[in-house]
Specification:
The complex is a heterodimer of chains A (about 475) and B (about 220). Chain A has about 475 residues and is of the alpha/beta class. Chain A folds into two domains: about 300 residues, NagB/RpiA/CoA transferase-like (Rossmann fold, 3-Layer(aba) Sandwich); about 70 residues, no CATH class. Chain A has 22 helices and ten strands. In chain A, strand 5 and strand 6 form a beta hairpin. In chain A, helix 2 crosses helix 12 and helix 16 runs parallel beside helix 18. Chain B is α/β, with parallel strands linked by helices and about 220 residues long. Chain B has one domain: 3-Layer(aba) Sandwich (Rossmann fold), CATH 3.40.50. Chain B has seven helices and twelve strands. Chain B is globular, with a radius of gyration of 21 Å. Classes of the chains: A alpha/beta (about 475), B alpha/beta (about 220). At the A-B interface, helix 2, helix 3, helix 4, helix 8 and helix 10 of A face helix 1, helix 2, helix 6, helix 7 and strand 9 of B.
């Protein structure tokens, strides 16, 4: 494989800058990402040709999510009551440790040895695979993309297309090395090989794990979207199904899923609908001949209630995990998903990860953006991502004296020196005499600006003040006119 | 304090002094852009499903059993999983009897645990009914039941579904108005054979579910 690969173990969120530098040098990665993102961008817009329809629906999507969040605790209780009534067991976890303990306990009670997983980003948050493996339980990914990266001991690079950073040749080599299959770069053959292997895994699995796209409170329904059928296999073949999801995924009723589904599948993949929409409201009923005997739902907080506490940051939880913000992000497209060192990469990752991990562990994430605004423009539920990034930058440099605990790790980038510098800058700009003197000096002695200005001059030429300030030029112009 | 109580208490304290937002749902936004004349519904569903690699055949209430038999014969399929307790299952078995079709009909009449290996390895095709169709997205609404269990439309490589033209709705919102209440243990929307684009975004069919989906639309039903 000629592409440099950043191993999951090497990547941490604290190293974003170093990771990004490494990724930028990986031409194979950049080619793979560029062509994939271009294609996803055009598929999305082709599936939303009518601007009025699209914008009205985004507005509705935003309101439907905002409404659900405005009564989140009540909806969660209603969801729980309905699920329990229908035979689904509900578990709550404040942290990923608690969630892992819940899943492990269910697995141990069932004496489970093999777990098959449909795609679930929350299980990635939990590092569930590693946790189960440590306790002697095999946890295998069954989504084609997830399966590929698990074989290569990597983390997902995209929340919808986890292996999008690899091309067919790289996957062919991986299958050759890890599965002892004859090399091919034919995508159909690669998929058929994986299908054959994974069918046996579905057959033998003791437990199936899935995420949830929408949890419908009124009917007690877990709604899952997918194209591959691995989600249906994972939730239907094994005798136990455990769904793991964040507490924000709940919506009030079934009709609310109509706009959200349409926004989700078109924003993510440019598809009017996915091949399967799987709505699960109960385990196998008396008389039914298949389906899991036990269904569990694990509701995970993991920092979400912290984002929820602030009415501006709460909008982060509108997210329906379509990935459109990444597809349109100039930074993400260039550095790929793994450089972020977080489960959720790209723009949404930069606003959600600080709540999951604390700002002290994601100190560069709010700044790793040009604030071009593309993410906010395409977000199907209108999360003002650029505004939230700016807000996180403020939280990031909050001084210890400023009141208000908003989030873990706030002020992690606070520097007394920098604060003093800006205070001086503010003073300089608000005292006319000082400002005049300053600009006079700068314009007259501009030629003395050093050529080397530290990091700035690594990529730019040094700024050189003009011979006369704008004030002076304007004044001269007005005098001349009169 | 349990995790449940802790989470709910935290959320409640964050919402203190606020009132829930009124239901913003506006059916016109999800319904009006996706309406079709009755004759158009079949055409659109056929067009969209064909575009994602499904085969859609138009037929009528007398001829579909023969069409189904022909489709299977053309593909040299000699076994079909059916639901003998349903009207369409019975109609097709009767057709096979009267025409002395050598096709072997299998029934999903025992719990999966008793014949999992056979279902996974030895059932090349299945035939099920559908609850409805959706024109806007080219979708089948399938309700698994004890007659037609969940895996019937998932494990066999070929899934054949029977759809009445009169049950094709314009869009998901309209179809939802006719869903069973309360929700069944499992309800599915199926819009083609299983597929993936996870390698280089190259579309490949037959990922984990059926490789082929054939829809028989009964135009006079």
């Amino acid at each position: 494989m000629n592409s440099q690969r950043i191993h999951a173990v090497d990547v941490t969120a604290r190293n974003l800058k170093a990771n990004a530098r490494l990724s930028l040098k990986d031409q194979q990665l950049r080619n793979n990402m560029r062509s994939a993102m271009d294609s996803l961008i055009s598929k999305r817009i082709i599936s939303m040709p009518d601007e009025d329809e699209r914008e009205n629906l985004r507005e509705l999507g935003n309101k439907v999510r905002a409404r659900a969040l405005s009564e989140l605790p009540d909806l969660l209780e209603l969801l729980e009551a309905n699920l329990i009534k229908q035979g689904i067991q509900v578990h709550w976890a404040s942290s990923t440790d608690e969630a892992n303990a819940i899943v492990l306990k269910i697995a141990q009670t069932r004496n489970a040895k093999q777990v098959i997983k449909g795609k679930s980003m929350v299980s990635e948050e939990m590092a569930m695979n590693e946790h189960l493996t440590e306790h002697g339980i095999e946890a295998l990914e069954s989504d084609m993309g997830e399966y590929i990266i698990q074989l290569d001991n990597e983390k997902p690079t995209h929340i919808i297309m986890p292996a999008i950073h690899k091309n067919a040749e790289q996957v062919g080599r991986l299958f050759e090395h890890r599965l002892a299959l004859p090399y091919t770069n034919d995508v159909d053959s690669l998929i058929q090989s994986a299908r054959g292997i994974l069918r046996e895994k579905f057959f033998h699995a003791d437990i199936g794990i899935s995420g949830v796209n929408f949890a419908v409170a009124e009917t007690g329904t877990l709604l899952l979207v997918e194209n591959e059928g691995n989600g249906r296999m994972s939730t239907t073949v094994p005798p136990v199904h455990i769904a793991v999801t964040g507490i924000e995924k709940v919506v009030a009723n079934l009709q609310d899923t109509v706009p959200l589904l349409s926004l989700l599948t078109r924003s993510a993949l440019g598809q009017g609908i996915t091949t399967y929409v799987n709505m699960i409201s109960a385990p196998r009923q008396p008389g039914e001949l298949d389906g899991p005997e036990e269904v569990h739902l694990v509701l995970l907080d993991n920092g979400r209630s912290q984002a929820f506490a602030d009415s501006e940051l709460r909008q982060t939880l509108n997210c329906i995990r379509c990935g459109a913000c990444m597809n349109h992000c100039p930074v993400y497209t260039r550095i790929g998903g793994q450089a972020y060192g977080t489960v959720y990469p790209g723009p949404i990752g930069k606003i959600i990860s600080p709540h999951l991990l604390g700002l002290e562990n994601t100190p560069d994430h709010p700044s790793a953006s040009s604030l071009c605004g593309a993410c906010g423009e395409v977000c199907p539920v209108k999360i003002p991502i650029p505004a939230l990034l700016r807000r996180l930058r403020e939280e990031n440099v909050k001084s210890p004296q400023q009141t208000g605990q908003v989030m873990d790790g706030q002020g992690s980038r606070y520097s007394a020196k920098e604060r003093l510098l800006w205070k001086g800058w503010q003073y300089f700009n608000s005292v006319p005499l000082l400002y005049k003197a300053g600009t006079f000096m700068a314009t007259r002695f501009g030629g003395l600006t050093p050529k080397n200005l530290g990091p700035w001059t690594q990529n730019h030429s040094a700024p050189k003040p003009a011979a006369r300030s704008l004030h002076e030029l304007a004044k001269a112009h007005l005098e001349k006119k009169s | 304090m349990s995790a449940r109580d802790k989470i709910l208490a935290s959320l409640r304290s964050s919402l203190e002094g606020t009132t829930p937002i009124a239901d913003p749902f506006d059916a016109t936004l999800v319904d009006e852009p996706w309406r079709y004349a009755p004759a158009e519904r079949v055409t659109r569903l056929k067009e969209l499903m064909t575009a994602v690699h499904s085969e859609v055949l138009l037929t009528n209430s007398h001829e579909w059993p023969k069409l189904l038999a022909d489709v299977l014969a053309a593909r040299k399929i000699n076994k079909l999983l059916i639901a003998p307790t349903t009207a369409h299952g019975q109609a097709f078995s009767k057709h096979c009897q009267t025409t002395q079709n050598p096709l072997q009909l299998l029934a999903y009449d025992r719990p999966i645990e008793e014949w999992k290996r056979e279902l996974f390895d030895d059932v090349p095709a299945s035939f099920t009914g559908t609850l409805a169709g959706i024109a806007a997205t080219g979708t089948l609404v399938v309700q698994p039941s004890s007659d037609e269990p969940r895996l019937m439309s998932l494990v066999p490589p070929l899934h054949i579904a029977l759809l009445n033209a009169s049950q094709i709705y314009d869009n998901l919102y309209q179809a939802q108005q006719h869903w069973p209440k309360p929700m069944p243990s499992n309800l599915l929307l199926i819009s083609g054979p299983s597929k993936t684009a996870d390698i280089e975004q190259v579309l490949a069919y037959g990922a984990h579910g059926p490789k082929d989906l054939i829809v028989l639309i009964v135009e006079d039903a």
